Every structure is written in C-alpha cells, then in structure tokens.
Amino acid sequence: MELVVPDLGEVEEVTLVRWLKGEGEEVEAGEAVAEVEADKAVFVIEAPLSGTLRNRRKEGARVRPGETIAVIQPG
Amino acid sequence: MRPVLVLRLGRVPYGPVLDWQRRLHLLRREGRVPDLLLSLEHEPVITLGRDATEADLLLPREELGRLGVEVHPIERGGAATYHGPGQLVLYPILNLRELGIGLREYVWRLEEVMIRTGKAFGVELFRRPGQPGAWHERGKVGFIGVFVRGWITYHGLALNVDLSPNGFSWIVPCGIPELSVVSLAELSGARIGVEEVEPLALSAFSEVFGMEVLALSGEEARAWLNQRG
Fold first, then answer.
1. What angle (nearest 5°) sits at the alpha carbon of residue B24, between those of residues B23 and B26?
2. B98 three-class SS
3. Is B174 a catalytic residue?
4. Pair B146, B74: CB distance under 8 Å
5. Quick one: pLDDT band at residue A31, thresholds 50, 70, 90?
6. What mean pLDDT is predicted for residues B122-140?
7. What tens digit of pLDDT does each residue of A36-56 get?
8. B77 touches chain A (CB under 8 A)
9. Which of B148, B96, B102, B109 is nearest to A9 (CA)?
C-alpha cells in the first residue's frame, strides 16, 4: 500500500522534513512515520497499516498532497 | 459556539509546559479533554524548531546558561525563536478536523488573532506572503510554530508585548539574519504589558475561531492540570 501525503487543506506543496522510520523498517498502524512541513507547521504522517517501509522519498523533497512518499508492504 | 477551555498559567518555565502540551495533546486525541488554549509567559528560553541549526545561536550555550536561558530543541515548524517575560504565548490544543479547518487556514487564523490584538492597541500589523507571523513595517512582532498529529495541534503563537530582556539578540530569529524584531509597546508608544494584552488576545481568539472562551486562572488552572497529570 502506498504512503501518501494527505490533503492538508489548501496546501499545495510541503517539504518532507524527516523520516521517523528507516528504509526496510517494520512499522505499526498508527505509528508516526514521517514529518512534512508547510507554513511553519509540522504535520505528522502516520502509517495507515502495519508492514515494512520501502521506497522512501528523500528527506528535503518537495511533495504535494496525494503524492506517494513510500510504500508499506503488509507483512 | 463551541467552547474552548483557556488555562491562564501566568509565568512558567518552558520544560514543564512542553511536557503538559504533549500530555494534553494525547488526552485531546483520545477525546478525554475538550479543545484547550494555554495562555502564558515563559521564563527566558530559546527554542530550536525543525529548521534551526547550531549557527542560529549567537552566544555559546555556556554563556546562555550563565544568563539563565534554557535551550530546547523541539518538534514545531520553523527555526530558532526566543520566549521570555513580556511576551504573550498561546498554545492551542485543538481538533482541527472537528473545527473543519486545514493547516493553511489554521496558520492564517493564528496570524489574524495577533493582527486583531495589535489593532486593539492602535498598532497595524500585517501578513507577509511566505513568511507566516505578524509583521509591522519596523519588523516582526508575532511568531508562529505549529505541530499537528492526528489533526490535533500544539505549540502555537508568541506575541511580543514588552520584552525584557530582548533575547532575540542572542539568536538568528526564524533563520533570517538581521531580522528586526519589535514589540507592541515600542510600536504603540504606550506602556502596555502582558496583563493588558492577554484579555484582548483571548477575545480575538474567540472571534477568529468562533469559540466561546471559558477561562481558568492561576491556582484553578493548575489544579485542573494536576487532576490530569
């Protein structure tokens, strides 16, 4: 399943500030996985399901709501 | 109108308030407390947001320690900022989803609270595109740094009223070298303190967020917190 930047409300683009979980790391549903920032506001992205985190986009990337920033492979 | 419970805490050190915010954020998320607003002044402290670097500190940490200034790296958006006596700080712990507002609208409303508060003292503040906060021609007066998880907010805004000392001289504020930082008292030419500004800022918050303010002060506010500690 793809990990997607949520609709943050009229925000066109955010910076993928940092990953809280490593490439290949196991994550649990609801766990904080990444932080994005826009307008002096940091927003935490949580895992929608449990699994292995893969294909993480680079920290510092500019990303848009709806864009995929990683994949979570259900274990 | 939806209620917001305001906890007026007076002057408090940074660390315990940060712990409280994190705790209340979780309780809000679990629906065990209502929407909250912490209203306070801090003892002198420098906080380093996600975008701050060590170079944003203009004095060595030992020197800051001697001056009694704490330094806290924290999770909010933005770079380095200063809080201290003479600055009104508001930390809303709100469920944005229930309020039906997104991230941009939230930041806009925090700016609006500061702009309306300035106006109440005859000071015209405005927004700068791409530089969230409350600005005057002479410099930056109001600061924003927000953290959102599960659509519940914490951290918030800081409005300079009459800073003493002006600890912004110890840092590169917001990561902008030579940024001019001013306060409402300088701009209005009147002797105003946080005591005068706080009630007007709370009214502005009530108007801008369409929320009814229910306030607990001092001992009552602390008792409320301790019951949830």
1. 70
2. helix
3. yes
4. no
5. very high
6. 96
7. 999 889 999 999 999 999 999
8. yes
9. B102
| B52 and chain A in contact, CB less than 8 A | no
Q: With a threshold of 0.85, tell me whether the complex ipTM lies above it.
A: yes
B45 Cβ partners below 8 Å, 6+ apart?
B13, B14, B69, B70, B71, B72, B82, B83, B84
Interchain pair A18, B50: CB under 8 A: yes
Which entry of B5, B161, B174, B202 is annotated as an active-site residue? Answer: B174
Cβ proximity of A62 and A5 under 8 Å: no
pLDDT at B229 over 80: no
Q: Do A42 and B146 touch (CB under 8 A)?
A: yes
* A75 confidence band (pLDDT: 50, 70, 90): confident
Spatial neighbors of A75 by CB under 8 A, at least 6 apart, are A26, A50, A51, A52
Whether A71 has a pLDDT exceeding 90, the answer reads yes
Total residue count of chain B as it appears in this document: 229
Q: Map tokens 């500190």 to a residue.
A: B57
Nearest by CB to residue A40, choosing from B101, B105, B145, is: B145
- Domains assigned to chain A: 2-73 (2.40.50.100)
Hey, is the C-beta of B78 within 8 angstroms of any chain A C-beta? yes
What chain B holds in terms of domains, given with CATH numbers, is 2-227 (3.30.930.10)
Pick among A5, A14, A20, A40 to test the B interface (most B CBs inside 10 A): A40
CA distance A74 to B30: 26
Residue B86's nearest CA partner among B189, B158, B14, B173 is B158
Q: Are strands A14-19 and A62-63 parallel, antiparallel or unpaired?
A: antiparallel
Residue range B101-116, pLDDT digits in tens? 999 999 999 999 999 9
pLDDT at B52: 92
